[in-house]
Amino acid sequence: MLLRQQLRRLTVLTGRHTVRYSTISTQGTVSSSRPINVTPIFTPPVKNTTQQENPKPTQQLEIENPLVHLERARSLFANEHGLFDKIDVISRTLRNPDTPIRVGLIGSSPSLLNTILADPFASDQSWHQALTERSTELTNIIKFSPAFESSNNEYNIPSPFLKSLGKTLEFVELSSKDTAGNDGCHIYISFQANTPFSLSKWPVYQVSDIATEDVHDIVLSKSEISSQVAYQAVKLLTESPKNATIYTDIYTRSNMTQFTKLLNKITNLENVIPRLYTSILKNLSEQNQTHSLTLDELNSRDAKVKKYISNWDQASHSEFQNVFKPYVVEYEKRELPWWKLYSRVDDIQGIFAHTLNLGLLNDSFKNYSYVKGQIDSFTSFQTGNVLDFDDLKKLEQKNELSTLKRMVIQNDLVTLQNKAGKLLMTNFLGIQLPLLLLSIPGFVIYDFSLYSMAGLASLGAVVGFNNVSKNWLKLVDQFKQDLFEKVRLALLDVNKSLYDDWSAKYEEEKEMIMKRMRLIEALKNDLGM
């Protein structure tokens, strides 16, 4: 209803109304011709006669401006079949009543526009000659202009037909490749059997243009025209006004007069806007049915993702207890026993870092990437796009386990290596070296026996090695306990973050589903459906 009210206001402002007119401004209208029978491909819905004249919007319909509802569709739906272009078209037209009505011609013969845009009595036919020489392989745009201009397949011509109907018309001859719907057209007229799928989503009228130049024996049905025959008539009238009688006869039999009457009818603002608005609504409804999940489907997805997270939690703790812990203990005993400490003290960080890189919950990392990818790539509006593999790899670097591994390698292992170096240095300088230094003068100066002094030096070495062994085991055990506790807490944090991320995603997508449903209802309300 709001849209109809706005259209009435626009009609008053522009003074647009249905006009009886001739095909060419200087040509007579033949009232005896049969009306052409045209089948619209897109049919607007029939209004429910039992509906109240002024239905009250529901509480969700807070915004009364139809343009606001249309603009909101951009953030909720996909730009399929030129949808956003059509929103721009209808927005421009409603905001500016003088916006030209653009008609897209699908599979039209060049003779169609050559005919209806001609001005046989004009003294200057150069613009029309240039128009007839246009390429048919590319998309051509034809607009009105007081003076002729052309560039890049856009023709601005002084054809009176474009301004003689109480409105301004523009035509777009669409090439076979230009079928995406991003052409600024309000409506389309198709002259071929199969209309391109994207264009069929919008108001399309089907007309049959018979390709023949037989001006004498042509017989057309109500649903047919022959622009080639009509163009022959136009050329006769251009040659001489004396050919007016034969022109009228040929032109009448081509059904072009009735075609231009039809064109006037279907390009009236009162027809164009509701049909285009309704087709936008239909496209949004189809997208909602095709791409958008229902609330039940969202709840089903909710249960599935929570099951993924629960399974990951169980599997990661199992891997932690049964794989990671034994692996670290075995690797440490094999690669860094106390007696290897003397030769590897400067490489403790690298050795343990290698351990963590090889064995820190590898399966849990992979499964995390999968679950996180399921969450981050999930959308209630599914158009076939999936999370890129590179994005999944990046996820592995953005969780508590990855952060823990980096912190352990960069901080804890450096601390452990420094403590090991300090242990060796303190042990050597405080125990082993002093006893060694005592044994040498004891033997050389004080005449202690070699055996006793060797025993003293050996005692220093044994005590030192024992001290290194005992303290190194303490350091490593403490490091492992801290590491295992940090991993356990990190697993809990990851599990919580997965639940939190999914909860936020679920609420976000639930709101998006509701917004799409409310928007479609708002658009229906605007149409008075």
TrEMBL record:
<dbReference type="InterPro" id="IPR056196">
    <property type="entry name" value="Mmc1_C"/>
</dbReference>
<protein>
    <recommendedName>
        <fullName>Mmc1 C-terminal domain-containing protein</fullName>
    </recommendedName>
</protein>
<dbReference type="Pfam" id="PF23867">
    <property type="entry name" value="Mmc1_N"/>
</dbReference>
<feature type="transmembrane region" description="Helical">
    <location>
        <begin position="450"/>
        <end position="468"/>
    </location>
</feature>
<feature type="domain" description="Mmc1 C-terminal">
    <location>
        <begin position="306"/>
        <end position="488"/>
    </location>
</feature>
<keyword id="KW-0472">Membrane</keyword>
<keyword id="KW-1133">Transmembrane helix</keyword>
<dbReference type="Pfam" id="PF23868">
    <property type="entry name" value="Mmc1_C"/>
</dbReference>
<keyword id="KW-0812">Transmembrane</keyword>
